[in-house]
Write a structure and sequence with these properties.
Shape: rod-shaped
Number of helices: 19
Largest sheet: 7 strands, antiparallel
CATH superfamily of the largest domain: GAF domain
Strand order of the largest sheet: 1-11-3-2-6-5-4
CATH class of the largest domain: Alpha Beta
Radius of gyration: 51 Å
Distance between the termini: 108 Å
Number of domains: 5
Oligomer: single chain
CATH topology of the largest domain: Beta-Lactamase
CATH architecture of the largest domain: 2-Layer Sandwich
Number of strands: 34
Strand content: 15-25%
Length: 862
């Protein structure tokens, strides 16, 4: 147990074991009163040695009924007053009561201690007594209420209490966050040494004593030299001493009395200042001669202290409300800054500007999601990484502050020239992100009330703390410390943490919403893709099934089926280019004529209106136009060198579209002896799928067909009707021969086998296949490969590493892909390999032969 400082708090425990848990108060009482404890059945269990003398009793009082010492009327009146103990745990008091009916008056205090009632009796003297005057207290508090700052409030409270109590010195003693004490206000006689501004170490009032001050709000020592009297018995039959925590008359430690004697103080009083149930500070009083405080005056002092507590709470509440308003304004100004996808890093400058008006700092860092932004005097990024690991060990979700970083962080020495204190605001939990405010070192002098190091003496009883004998101001230079972080700054920081968390959550919600929209869109696209794929598969199955009636060999059937599938593929390419939206009819016609007719495409003339088709109509017309073109090329006007086809596209008044097909100057045409699947597609598709009309006439001069496409499936387009032609897509139907070794990289076995057959048919000596990049590299490394056809997408990987290797080593390579030219991946490949040839899936043997001639030249092809 330590000695106490000049503010007068009292050590009450075993002084040789100051770090132990709280124990019962020393069993002695001061000379100005006596103490008597009784059990619940009113039998005396403890009494002070001076109790018989003060109450005028003879003999030992232990174990005797209290009725032997008090009159029946006194017992009745005391029982009545003690009824209040059932309502309030605080002591009840009786002023100037005649206990024995002999005219001797006593002031009486009663409280409970475990299962006992504790009575304290103080005889009243014959001198004039004080009068309890609440009006005087209210007048003094009214003067306190005039002030709106803590210093002014405390100064007026010290003046008021000194006038009320008559002490030579009254101090307002405030506990700082580190536990040390600070005299923030003082009222004294002119000839008394000032203590204003002095500091006292936290150990001057240990934890046990502070807990006692929270329970017993007023402690007095009328005369430090007065004798004390033991309580008998020292322990009850169960071995426990009487708990005298709430007893006003109990004596104090001899160490404290010696301490006060060294100061020249003859009497003292301490009154607790509580804030939210915690010990905020003390009203500490000193007198340099014995000074007794009557019950009436004590009651006035307690009332004054309670009202001062209320005024202090009001002042702090006003400060807190002001901080709330400032925080709300900061919140309202900052939160909109996080809109439009702006994150913490983006608003860092605005954040610092807002904070600087409420919290002083020398530097600031935002450390978020691996990003590091800073302003002012701060640690470097590497130093911040290490500091963040230290902060990660702090309790999550709480602001961490220190004005002496070196006392807690081992790495503080490396940044001591820039940082001494910090305030860290966590803005997420995983990963830990922070907004950190830094303060530099402030070298300052702390004035202590004497040397704060406690002296220790060793005697026959062991080591013993001793009171200071010098109380002159003792200065200490404080290094490695910043300005402390005040409670109002912490309130602002906590409000800012809430704002930042709200902003982070808002961003997370927006991100989740965007992710949800993307996920929903992806699921919709997948469902739509699944629908289309199934439709295509069913369509191909129908083409296979219905096309079995094709006259001729299996080879002829396969060729016809292959052409129809490629017609659908060309239509899908055009739809993909328009993002599966409305597409020009003229473009569909151009794609079919260019792909199938090669040099004869110019003999197809398209006139009329520019028209766009819906995706469904576009797919339907692709097969119809394909059948018309192939029939004309095989049997009609385009089968010789003189015929031509005229196609007219016109908008009808009702919004529908008329499409006419006229063949001229070709061989004579006769109706077919039997209708095949191709004829069925021409005549039935538009009426069945689109609700339009179709009429086909086999005139001798050439085939004529008239189609009507409903308004819902067609619409006018801007500009004039044009048929774009890409000469690069025209395919020479005379396949080249390839004389070399080939490697096919394809993860689909059926497609791989089909390509092997194509290359073998074109004359390849050998064709090897690989479904993975690693396998393809092994083949390239172990054998002579003259040509590589690589599918871009191999499932979990792409073939680009092999393509890059082939380009670097000079091996001819062609990339096959199902992606459109506008897709990001295809565009990236074209940008990286400008001369690389790309085959669009599905491709024919003619297309493969054509790209071979372009890539290999004449050395390996004929």
């Amino acid at each position: 147990m330590s000695d106490h400082n000049t503010s007068g708090p009292e050590p009450e425990y075993d002084l040789t074991t100051c770090d132990q848990e709280p124990i019962h108060i020393i069993g002695t009482v001061q000379d100005f009163g006596c103490l008597l404890a009784v059990s619940t059945d009113w039998i005396v269990t403890h009494f002070s040695a001076n109790c018989p003398e003060i109450l005028g009793c003879d003999g030992d009082m232990l174990g005797r009924p209290i009725s032997e010492f008090l009159t029946p009327q006194a017992l009745h009146d005391l029982r009545t007053r003690m009824q209040m103990l059932q309502i309030d745990d605080k002591p009840v008091r009786v002023f100037a009561y005649d206990l024995k009916g002999d005219g001797q008056l006593f002031d009486i205090s009663v409280h409970t201690s475990e299962r006992r009632f504790v009575f304290e009796f103080e005889p009243r003297g014959t001198s004039p007594q004080d009068v309890y005057d609440p009006a005087l207290v209210q007048a003094l508090i009214a003067r306190v209420q005039r002030h709106d700052t803590l210093d002014a409030l405390a100064h007026e409270a010290a003046r008021g209490l000194r006038n009320l109590s008559g002490f030579d010195r009254v101090m307002v003693y405030k506990f700082e966050e580190d536990g040390s004490g600070h005299v923030i206000a003082e009222a004294r006689k002119p000839d008394v040494e000032p203590f204003l501004g002095l500091r006292y170490p936290a150990s001057d009032i240990p934890k046990q004593a502070r807990e006692l001050y929270k329970r017993s709000l007023l402690r007095i020592i009328p005369d430090v030299d007065a004798p004390v009297h033991p309580v008998r018995p020292e322990r009850d039959p169960m071995g426990a001493p009487l708990d005298m925590s709430l007893a006003v008359t109990r004596a104090v430690s001899p160490i404290h009395l010696e301490y006060l004697g060294n100061m020249g103080v003859a009497a003292s009083m301490s009154v607790s200042i509580l804030r939210n149930g915690e010990l905020w500070g003390l009203l500490a009083c000193h007198h340099y001669a014995p000074h007794y405080i009557s019950y009436e005056k004590r009651t006035s002092v307690e009332l004054f202290a309670q009202l001062f507590n209320y005024e202090l709470a009001q002042l702090e509440m006003q400060d807190e409300l002001g901080d709330v308003e400032r925080a709300r304004g900061m919140h309202d100004r900052l939160l909109p800054q996080f809109s439009s996808g702006r994150g913490l890093v983006d608003v860092f400058k605005d954040l610092c500007r807002e904070m600087s008006g409420a919290v002083a700092f020398d530097g600031a860092v935002i450390y978020s999601d691996g990003d590091y932004r800073h302003t002012g005097t701060v640690p470097t990024l590497a130093e911040m990484d290490a500091l963040a690991r230290f902060l990660n060990a702090c309790p999550p979700g709480q602001i961490y502050t220190t004005d002496q970083l070196g006392a807690f962080y081992d790495g503080a020495g490396a940044i001591a020239d820039r940082v001494a204190g910090l305030l860290a605001i966590p803005i997420s939990r995983k990963p830990r992100d922070y907004l950190v405010l830094f303060r530099r070192e402030v070298v300052k002098s702390v004035v202590w009330a004497g040397n704060p190091t406690k002296p220790v003496e060793t005697n026959e009883n062991g080591r013993r703390l001793t009171p200071r004998k010098s109380f002159q101001a003792w200065k200490e230079m404080a290094r490695g410390q910043s300005q402390p972080w005040h409670p109002r700054e912490l309130r602002i920081a906590e409000a800012l943490r809430t704002t930042l968390i709200e902003a982070v959550l808002k961003q997370a919600d927006e991100t989740n919403a965007e992710r949800k929209r993307a996920q929903d869109q992806q699921e919709l696209l997948i469902a739509e893709l699944n629908h289309r794929v199934r439709n295509i598969l069913n369509l191909i199955r129908g083409l296979v099934s219905q096309g079995r009636e094709t006259e001729g060999s299996v080879e002829k059937f396969g060729a016809v089926l292959d052409e129809r599938i490629h017609a659908l593929a060309r239509a899908h390419d055009q739809l993909n280019q328009s993002e599966w939206d409305w597409s020009p009819l003229a473009g569909l016609i151009a794609a079919e004529t260019d792909a199938f007719l090669a040099g004869k495409a110019s003999r197809v003339r398209v006139t009329g209106s520019a028209v766009e088709l819906s995706p469904d109509a576009f797919t339907c017309l692709a097969l119809v136009v394909h059948e018309l073109v192939t029939n004309s090329a095989k049997y009609g006007a385009l089968s010789d060198s003189s015929g031509q086809v005229n196609i007219s596209i016109d908008m009808l008044p009702n919004g529908a579209v008329s499409l006419t097909w006229r063949e001229r100057d070709g061989p004579a045409v006769a109706p077919p002896k039997r209708k095949g699947f191709g004829t069925t597609i021409i005549e039935k598709s538009i009426p069945f799928e689109l609700g339009g009309t179709a009429e086909v006439r086999y005139e001798t001069t050439g085939l004529e067909a008239d189609f009507t496409i409903p308004k819902a499936q067609a619409r006018p387009a801007e500009g004039e009707v044009t048929v774009p032609r890409d000469s690069a897509q025209e395919v020479d139907h005379m396949p080249v021969k390839f004389h070399g070794n080939a490697l096919v990289i394809e993860d689909n076995m059926i497609i791989a086998l089909d390509v092997v057959d194509m290359l073998t048919h074109l004359g390849a000596r050998s064709v090897e296949t690989a479904s993975r990049v690693s396998t393809a590299r092994d083949i390239l490394a172990n054998g002579q490969v003259d040509f590589v056809l690589a599918d871009l997408n191999l499932g979990s990987e792409t073939s680009l590493p092999v393509v890059e290797e082939c380009v670097a080593s000079g091996v001819p390579v062609v990339l096959a892909t199902g992606y459109a030219d506008t897709d990001e991946i295809t565009a990236s490949v074209r940008a990286s390999y400008k001369d690389l040839k790309i085959l669009k899936k599905p491709y024919t043997i003619e297309q493969l032969s054509s790209v071979l001639s372009q890539v290999l030249g004449t050395d390996n092809t004929t």
